[in-house]
Specification:
By secondary structure, this protein is an all-alpha fold. The longest helix has 32 residues.
Length: 93
């Protein structure tokens, strides 16, 4: 079924699908996006779910640790909050 659908696709449809997938992958930061894409392409959707879950849980854990560190820094030096706000705004810009 899938082979039939792909063989009937016009060349412009295949290029459009490639451009859309590349845009999503290139628009997302970090190597995790590329590795999840590669694992999904190599092993399929169902086997790659555990890998993807590990990436998401690991990223969440790191973000929580960083947030706890920043909160601890702000709690110990309250005057640092305005400086950190300006630095974060400049980073985003």
């Amino acid at each position: 079924m899938v082979g039939e659908v792909l063989s009937e696709a016009q060349p412009w449809q295949q290029v459009l699908a490639l451009v859309m997938a590349a845009t999503v992958v290139m628009g997302s930061p970090g190597p995790a996006t590329i590795s999840v894409t590669a694992v999904g392409a190599a092993f399929g959707l169902r086997p790659s779910l555990a890998y993807t879950s590990g990436i998401v849980l690991g990223t969440t854990a790191v973000l929580l640790v960083v947030a706890a560190g920043i909160f601890g820094m702000l709690a110990s030096v309250p005057g640092l909050a305005p400086l950190l706000t300006v630095a974060s705004a400049l980073y985003i810009l």
